Amino acid sequence: MNIKVLIEIVSKGQFIRPILNYVVHYLESDRSDKNKNIVNYINVLKLKWDVKYDEALEIIDKELQKLKKGGLHCLILVEKIGILVKLSRNEEIKEVFNQLKEEFATLPKYLRGIVVEKLKNVHELNFEEKDSQTIRIWSESYENAPAAKGFILLSKAREKKNEERYDEAVSLNVEAFKVLKIVPHPSGMVQALNNTSWWLKDTNKEKALAFTLPLGFYLGYYFDDNNFDVFNFLDTMFQVQKNNNDPLVYETAFIFSRCLSQLNKVESEPIKNTFKDIINQLKYYVFNLDNNQHRSTPKLRDFIRKVIGKEKIPIDSINISEKTLKEFLSANTKYIQPSTLRNIIDALEFEITTSTPICIIKELKKKDIDKKFEINLEKFKNLPKERQISELFTSYLVHYYKEEIDLKEVIKEIEDRGLIKERCDYYTKELINYIFERNPKIEFNSLLTNVRKPKIYTNKNITFKEHPFYLGRKEVVKRFMKDLNKKNLKEFIGNYIGLDTRQKKTIEKFIMNYGRYYDLRDIPKEFTPKVPKEIDPWVKKYTLKRKPSALSFYVFEGEEREEFVEIVKAFEM
Question: pTM of the full predicted structure?
Answer without folding.
Answer: 0.91
